[in-house]
Predict the structure of S-layer homology domain-containing protein.
Amino acid sequence: MKLVYYGTLHNPIKLIGINLLEGSRLRTFQASPVKWAAALLLSSSILFSQSAAFAASPATATAAADGAAQYKQYLKEELSVELSGTVTKGDFIEAVADALGYEPSGEEVAFTDLQSDDPLYNAAAALYEKGILSGPAVSGDQVLTASVAVLIAVRAADLKELAYTYPASKVDKALAKLKVSSAALGAKGAQEVAAAVDAGLIPAELYAGFKPNGAAGDELIHTLLGKVLVTKGLYKKYLGYVSDADIYSKLSAAYEASDIIEAPKLQELVNTALKQELVTGYSLKDSRFDPRFIDSLSLTYGHSDLKHAIQLIGLLRSEGIDAKVQFEPKTSAFIFLAEWGEPGPNVVQIENGNYINYDKEYDISFEFASAKDKAAFDRIVLAYAKKNEENQAGLIYGSWWQPLYFTTTALTDYEEITNNFIVDPNSPYTVNTFSLNEDSAKVVEGLKAIDPDAAIHPYAIWADQPFFRYLNGESA
C-alpha cells in the first residue's frame, strides 16, 4: 500500500532512505462531494478580501471583477442552480433558497395561495422564516419583475435594516441613478431599491435598463444572486489576482499571519495512524480559507516557502497568465526519526522515541480566466518549477523534484488519484491524505479501525504526473 506524504520533496534521496515513498501527503479541498452550506469569516480581513479594481502588469491583461456571466457559471456548476427563459417569482424564490442552503424549520407557515404539498412551499417557508418573504401570498406563478427581484435580494443579503434607515432625500438620490421615482415603488420598496444601488447589488452597468415593473432580465437575476452570495460570504474568497500590483504584499501578509494549525480531535486519529505506520504523513487545513472557486477553472498548488510562492506569481505574470489567487494555510506532519539528530521546535515525541514533526506550509489555489489558461499551468511548472537534477539552472527558487498541484476535474496529462478526506463535523478543520486509487479502501479501512465514527469521504482528484510517479515509488 502506498499512501504518500507530500511536502518538502526537494531531497528525494533522503525521502527514499526513510521510506516516505510508502507514505502520504495531504491537502484540504472543499470538492463537490463535500461542500459546506455556511462559510465562517475570519478576523483578518485581508485573507478574504475581494478586489474591485485591479492593476495589471505589462505582461498580463487587466483582470475584471466577476459579473453576471461568472455568477451564472458559479451557480450552475457549483450550486446546481440554473435559471433561464421566463423566470417566475417562484423560480427566483427557489433559487435563493437553494443558493443559500435554506430549509424550513418544520413549523407550519400559512400562505393564502400555497399549500404545504406544493413544490414551492419549502423554499417559500424557508425564506418567510428568514424575513425575506412577508406573505401572506407568495404569487409564485407571476413573472418575476425587476423590483421584486431586488426586494428579495436585499432581504436575502441581510441589508433590510440598512434600507429602512434611508430618508426620502437619500432614497431619491440613489433612485436618480436608475431614473426611477420612489412613487413607482412604494415607501419601503423605494428604500430597498435605493439600498441595493448604494450597496452594489445593482451595478452601474445595469442602471440604464432597470425597469421596476418589467420582467427581470437574465443579467439582473444572476447579478443579484451572485451579489447575495458575495454579501453573505458564500461566494469565492481570494486575496486578489495574479495581475494585481499589490498581490505580492497580500501574499506575504497572508503567509506571515498563518501559523501551525492545531486540531486535537483529528490529530488524535491521524497521529495514531502515523504510529501504526498506516500513513507516514498528513496535513491539516482550515475550511474557512476554502476559495470556493469554480472547479472546472481552478487548481491547487502546494509548497512551503514564501519566496517560491512570490516567484510562482511572477512566473505566471511573465507567461501572460492571470488568475484569482487564494492563500490556504496548511500544517503538514510526518515521522521524524530519532537518529536524524535534534528535531525542530514543532515536534511531539512518541512512544518509540521518534517524533511527529509539524511543518508550516500552504496551498495556493488559482481560478483561471479560461480552461486554456488552466491547462497551460502544467507546461509552465514543468519548464520552470520542476527539478530534474541537482543544481539545475533556470528554475524558480525552491523548485521541488515532485511538485504537487491538482484539480477536482479531469485534465489532460494529469493522473487520477484519491483524496481520503477526513472532517470534524464540529470544527472547520480537515485532514487530507492522498493515495493511489487502488489503495484508498485499505487506507479508509485502517482509519476506521482506529475510529469507527471518523467521517472519511474519499473522492477523485487529478494530480500532476511527477507527483503521481512519486506515489508509485519513483524518486523524481
Residues 1-61 have pLDDT under 50 and may be disordered. Residues 12-65+237-471 form one domain. The CA atoms of residues 79 and 99 lie 6 Å apart. Residues 218-231 form the longest helix (14 residues).
